[in-house]
Amino acid sequence: MMFTAAMFALAVAMLLVLVRLFAGPTLYDRVLALNAFGTMTVLLIGVVGFMTERPDFLDIALLYALINFVGTIAILKFFRYKDLGQGLAASEEQNSLRDGGSQ
Amino acid sequence: MNLSLDLILDIASWISFGLGAFFLIVGAFGMIRLPDFWSRLHAAGVIDTLGAELIVLGMLFQAGFTIVAVKLLLIGAFVFLTSPTGTHAVANAAFVAGLRPLGLTRDDTAAKTDKGA
Amino acid sequence: MEAFIDIVLFGFLILTAIAIMRLRNLFAVVMLSGVFSLLSAGLFVVMDAVDVAFTEAAVGAGISTVLMLGTMAMTSREEKPPVHNRLFSFAIAVIVGAALIYGTTDMPPFGSPDAPAHQHVGPDYIERTPKEIGVPNVVTAVLASYRGFDTLGEVAVIFTAGIAVIVLLHGRTRPARTARARKKEKDV
């Protein structure tokens, strides 16, 4: 019963965040919404697992929590450096370029 | 004795779920209603920290001392560590990209950051 | 109650698909496809297909998002407006979809014990695995022992594909985007 209530709340919140994800005027709004949506998916899988009395499914929720973080950081790295293929050295170089440009 | 313990755990779960659901929905409404990215950051923070952790806590009360509880603790710890990191990274990326709060011109912030540095 | 979860998840899936169709910004499309695969993995969990959900989570939501972003570094950020006749594409999609739905009417109901998958070699594996292999998970026994060479071939294919992707992503970026080119880009 309580899991059902929690699931309803999660479904409503997911719908609202999904709207922001569709509408989000800037890309950063979308990333933020994606992050929140991922967190809520993790919770939803956990709650559904408890509701169907098979909480062993939490492994997947755990995997999601990690993948979500990796995905967010990858997207942001891409926004910031406009590239994923370069190593740290190249990023540093670009950083110094940016600082040089703004002064 | 056993029965009353179960009852206490159930009540604790209900309270956690209720509060968690409240924060989740408030955060989600904030994501929709707040005017710009910087204020929406606050709403996302509410979802990722209080909302998520309270729901995990509510599940934890129901799990008992099992492997499931360990997994829930791990999920809670990961969410606790990664969500603020992710939110900070989004904010940082947005700031670097030149996004500024509503009602604040670019010159304002430039002047302030120069003074602070 | 499971019906409600199914309806909610499928509703989100349809919303996401429509949004992917309508948006022209490719960043947003990549993020929404990540959401799409999160949702479908949720559906797999509800259907008890935990191993498929695991793969979907790792590949769909994680790796393919990163690969798509890496690809986008070399192409445009905006989708061009379609030049072909959209009505024709829509008709093809509707016909193929209808054919697929028609095909499902011949399939046994979900979770039915009379399904061919549970009649043919399945029971044999379930019976022999504890004796011959001794691992609790029958899928693992089939993948790693009964069909070991098949799995080795698959791993070789995935490994080759991974190397190819790395070569593609690395080979083009380095010479084309030197520090000077990047600075010029930024000044513009």
From TrEMBL, chain A:
Classification via Pfam families: MrpF_PhaF
Cell compartments where the protein resides: Cell membrane
Cellular component GO terms held in the UniProt record: plasma membrane
Record's keyword terms, sorted: Cell membrane, Membrane, Transmembrane, Transmembrane helix, Transport
Membrane topology, from the record: Multi-pass membrane protein
GO MF term list: sodium:proton antiporter activity
Membrane spanning residue stretches: 33-50, 57-79
Family assignment from sequence similarity: Belongs to the CPA3 antiporters (TC 2.A.63) subunit F family.
Name of this chain's protein: Multiple resistance and pH regulation protein F
Native source organism of the sequence: Tepidicaulis marinus
Automatic annotation (TrEMBL), chain B:
Superkingdom of the source species: Bacteria
Alphabetical list of Pfam families matching this protein: PhaG_MnhG_YufB (PF03334)
Keyword annotations of the record: Membrane, Transmembrane, Transmembrane helix
Gene Ontology terms for molecular function: sodium:proton antiporter activity
Transmembrane feature ranges: 12-34, 54-81
The keyword Metal-binding appears for this protein: no
Protein name: Monovalent cation/proton antiporter subunit MnhG/PhaG
Organism: Tepidicaulis marinus
From TrEMBL, chain C:
Domain MrpA C-terminal/MbhE: from-to ranges: 86-181
CC annotations in GO: plasma membrane
Compartments, as annotated in UniProt: Cell membrane
Domain spans labelled MrpA C-terminal/MbhD: 12-75
Pfam family, one: MbhD
Keyword Transport included in the entry's annotation: yes
NCBIfam families documented for this protein: PRK12504.1
Keyword Thylakoid (UniProt): no
Membrane topology listed for this record: Multi-pass membrane protein
Main location: membrane
Keywords linked to the UniProt accession: Cell membrane, Membrane, Transmembrane, Transmembrane helix, Transport
Name by which UniProt lists this protein: Putative multicomponent Na+-H+ antiporter subunit A
Membrane-spanning parts: 6-21, 26-47, 53-75, 87-105, 155-173
Highest taxon of source: Bacteria
